Amino acid sequence: MTWGQVLSLLNALWFTAAFVQFSIAQTNTVKILVPREARDNALVPTIKASVSFLGGMNLALALFAFYLAAGPAAFAATEQQVVLFAFFAAANFSQFWFNVPVALRGGRIGQAYWPVFSGPMLKIFVIDAVLAVADAVAAFHFSSI
Q1: Of 11-15, 33-37, 71-75, 132-136, which range is least confident?
Q2: What total of structural domains would you count in the chain?
Q3: How far is the C-alpha of 99 from the C-alpha of 44, rounded, in Å?
């Protein structure tokens, strides 16, 4: 297994975890995002339904990354590797980046936002950043071959 396949496998596992968290464990996700005292708000069911869409997008990314981890000849060209890793870098970076404003505001403020620097959200924040950098490095590596 090449290091590119290993990185694809790591992406696949991470996107799968996101799918599970957001689509299968929606109730748990809402508990992370919405403080206990606000869970009777009429918008909570909308939040719960909305996070399932995020899970669905992550499922598509996971399936594609698992396919790439298998090392198909269809995506073996160096130019294709650049595009694929740049794509995964963008996917992970976007999920990291949109947590940055929440983190800069201080995370949870009353009933708004979520705690970026603690619990599961910290893990998500860090892993999204690490995989974004790793994927960008891979894209750069393949672009210089």
Answers
A1: 71-75
A2: 1
A3: 20
